[in-house]
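[Discussion] Sanity-checking designs against the backbone

I'm trying to build intuition for which residues belong where. Below is a structure token string of 222 positions. I'd appreciate it if someone posts a full sequence so I can compare it with mine line by line.
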């Protein structure tokens, strides 16, 4: 069972700035862990990562990106074959529809190139704000929002940044409290900390260097 969370306690601004500084010290090279060589590969890998792990997706895309090298080639893929190629990432039927559908739209409406605006990206099948923010921030280096996955949602509440649980509202809270020039980096850094230290079931509070400022440090589960 996931670790239950206690009542939300908003972190004061000075403590939040200390946490941001510590995350920069801990993870100076924090970046997206999905392997990719271009915007299309990142888009597809991010779609495949839903309800999966980056490790699993990287295993699958190693062969996938050798077989399909353009939006046109993905769009022309046989859905039945593609389903089997991505099966181990889970939810492979829905992901096949999303990937092939996005590739078709990119081919037909965007000249085969992944669009570089939020407005255009979220028109693609299977692409909502999280996926769009990954592509915009990681590849295009555009800080138009903050990536919100399960790690970021969990840590945003534990660290007292925002009490929200809905991803759109979590993102809004992060955008309000984090400086815009840190949106891209902090998205990656918080994910890294969630994976390496502040896990859902067994957060390693005893060895967490954010503990001095974390509102949840030392409090019992309720």
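Best answer:
Here's mine. Compare freely.
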């Amino acid at each position: 069972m996931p670790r239950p969370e206690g009542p939300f306690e908003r972190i004061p601004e000075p403590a939040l700035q200390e946490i941001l500084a510590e995350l920069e010290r801990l993870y100076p090279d924090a970046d997206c862990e999905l392997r990719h060589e271009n915007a299309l590969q990142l888009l597809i890998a991010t779609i495949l990562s839903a309800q999966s792990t980056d490790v699993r997706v990287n295993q699958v895309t190693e062969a996938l990106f050798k077989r399909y090298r353009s939006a046109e080639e993905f769009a022309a893929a046989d859905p039945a074959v593609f389903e089997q190629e991505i099966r181990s990432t889970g939810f492979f039927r829905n992901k096949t529809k999303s990937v092939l559908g996005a590739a078709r739209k990119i081919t037909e409406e965007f000249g085969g190139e992944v669009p570089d605006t939020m407005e255009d990206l979220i028109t693609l099948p299977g692409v909502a704000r999280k996926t769009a923010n990954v592509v915009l921030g990681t590849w295009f280096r555009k800080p138009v929002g903050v990536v919100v996955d399960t790690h970021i949602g969990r840590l945003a509440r534990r660290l007292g940044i925002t009490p929200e649980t809905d991803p759109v509202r979590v993102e809004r809270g992060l955008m309000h409290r984090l400086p815009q020039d840190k949106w891209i980096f902090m998205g990656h850094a918080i994910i890294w900390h969630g994976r390496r230290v502040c896990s859902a079931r067994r957060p390693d509070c005893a060895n967490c260097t954010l503990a001095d400022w974390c509102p949840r440090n030392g409090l019992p589960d309720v």
